Amino acid sequence: MAKVERQIMAHRVITMLGREEIDFLDKLGKDALFSTGHKLSYNEILRGLIDFAMEAGISGDNIDSPRTLKLKLKEQASRIEGHN
Predict the structure, then answer these.
(1) Radius of gyration of the chain (CA)
(2) What span, in angstroms and rounded, lies between the C-alpha atoms of 71 and 63?
(3) Backbone angles phi, psi at 12, to 5 degrees
(4) How far apart are alpha carbons 10 and 25 in whole angstroms?
């Protein structure tokens, strides 16, 4: 039987961020560079945040705004912090 290779599919996501959000991403990436020698790209930072939300079990249920999403993320982070 032939070996089946899994193909990883990536999709480009374009977002509109404000100056404060871009400044935050820049600072996070540069702080990583100076503390570890590796600068985190926007892609790596966003992927890490998305991975956290997925692992925390965040779903779209009852989330009607970015503010509600943020509250749900904070709530879940508190629960995870309480278990450690």
Answers:
(1) 17
(2) 9
(3) -75, 135
(4) 21
